[in-house]
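sanity check this:
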Amino acid sequence: MVILLTSPADKTSISKASEDLAGYVKFVVDLKREVMTIGGLRHYLGEQLLLQDGSYQKDLWGGGVDLESKEIDYESMINIRPPTNSSREALDPGIRAQMKAIVDKLFVKI
């Protein structure tokens, strides 16, 4: 289940989002609007929901959170943007810091 977060997630939303991948939650953040999606089996599902909600592709970055260890990763196919980001991993430390700030604010404090 993909859930759009514009305010901090409650326990029910986190529980529903974690059902898809048994405790690991994929997310997509909009760096400009500071909103995000959680859940789903693929990042593109969250990406599509944010695009339908008014986001722009250039502002969207994906990653995931292991709910047990609280470890965040910054890897998603939607992050590949040659020539600025030629990897699935968000390589720019500034973008990673923005992603983490949004995850901390709306999803789980890491």
Q: What stands out?
A: Residues 54 and 79 are 19 Å apart (CA to CA).
